[in-house]
Amino acid sequence: MRKNPLLAATAALSIAGLSLTGCSIAAQKENEESKDKTVTIITHDSFELTKEQIKKFESESGYKLKTTSPGDASSVVNQLLLAEDKAAADGFYGVDNLQAGALTKKGVVEDYVPENLPEAAKKLTNSDALTPIDQGQVCINADAEWFKKNKVELPKTTEDLTKPEYAKLLVAQDPAQSSPGFAFMVATMHQTSDWKKAWEDMLAGGTKVVASWSNAYNTDFSGSEGKGKYPLVVSYSSSPAYEGGKTVNIDATCIDQVEYAGVLKGAKNPEGAKAFVDFMLSDEMQNAIPEQMYMYPVNPDAKLPEEWATHAPLSKTSVTPDPSEIAEKRDEWIKEFRAIAEKN
Question: What pLDDT does residue 89 have?
Fold first, then answer.
């Protein structure tokens, strides 16, 4: 008996359709499983891992790493606060002690204490939701060659920066948009007799305020690649090591900074975020932090580049801010700064 060709064709199409549907479901399932194995970390724009380090993390943890950056640490904080209970990622890295309190206050981070957190690092946090990864200081950096060439004495204190002869030489960052900018604003509260008056004097005297560290350091500062017009800049205690000693820190202007990593509340992959935090505390990453992130590792046994001892020692007179006070008054201080800036 011969088969009806129309029925045969219909049957073939049905089988093909079922086959394609099966493939589609399998592909969808595979795609969903792939997403489950991806961990997304929100970071500041100075975060850097090598291909080899990413491969090692993925091999050891079983998770595929995806990073996203909205800008510097202040931008990360602002984005996480705006997201609130809708997690912008699984975990975070690079939020510092001067702004992390805003996250814990809003409850957007989960408690997690890694087993490999060095004992010495525990004193760098006051929250189980914030894991210290690296530390450093925000300081005024000076182009030593410029001061020598122009026969001008280096400023010695933050109060000196309010004097007209120094105010016009300084480029700083907007505290509302920049992590080091906010740190410097907090430093002026501890290192001058009247921080509002100090800022009024600096701005009236010619201090330039820009949006980001990269604009200030790489474009306006005379002591780096941009060869700008300002021989004083708000930067980091480690920056002079990068410049090979052509620049120096003004020790009395420094304020302590600690960068944290952690797990976000509502994360789709909290276990992946925990694995990332653990990885950042591994011996390999702690040894790599000075060269890649230009910060000091929190593990005291980690190796530092030789030139850091010469050109990037930590200031012994730096300010250590109160995180709880900053969390409480951060928004108020920024509004006060904006009001001062608008008048000048």
Answer: 93
CA distances from 316 to 133, 227, 241, 299 (A): 21, 30, 17, 19
Q: Give the span between the Cα atoms of 290 and 203, in whole angstroms.
A: 33
Q: How far apart are CA 134 and CA 259, in angstroms?
A: 5
Give the three-state DSSP class for 230. Answer: strand
∠ CA 343-230-219, rounded to 5°: 100
**Signed CA dihedral, 37, 66, 116, 266: sign only:** negative
Specify whether the CB–CB gap between 229 and 168 falls below 8 A: no
pLDDT of 192-223, one tens digit each? 999 999 999 999 999 999 999 999 999 999 99
Spatial CA neighbour of 36 closest among 254, 200, 230, 268: 268
pTM over 0.85: no
> Which uninterrupted H or E stretch holds 210?
strand 208-210
Amino acid code (one letter) for 37: K
Of 249, 252, 260, nearest to 313 by C-alpha is 249
Q: How many CA atoms lie within 13 A of 64 on its CB side?
A: 7
Phi, psi of 245 (to 5 degrees): 90, 0
**DSSP structure string for 99-145:** THHHHHHHT-EE----TT--GGGGGG-S-TT-EEEEEEEEEEEEEHH
Read off the pLDDT of each residue in 111-138 and give the average, rounded to a whole number. Answer: 95
For 275-299, what is each residue's pLDDT tens digit? Answer: 999 999 999 999 999 999 889 999 9
Q: Which residues contact 190 (CB under 8 A, 6 or more apart)?
A: 255, 319, 321
pLDDT, tens only, 43-82:
988 898 999 999 999 999 999 999 998 888 888 888 888 8
CB atoms within 10 A of CB 334: 17
Cα–Cα distance measured from residue 288 to residue 170, given in angstroms and rounded to the nearest whole number:
32
Say if residue 27's pLDDT is above 80: no
pLDDT score of 74: 82
What does residue 281 show for φ and ψ, rounded to 5 degrees? -95, 0
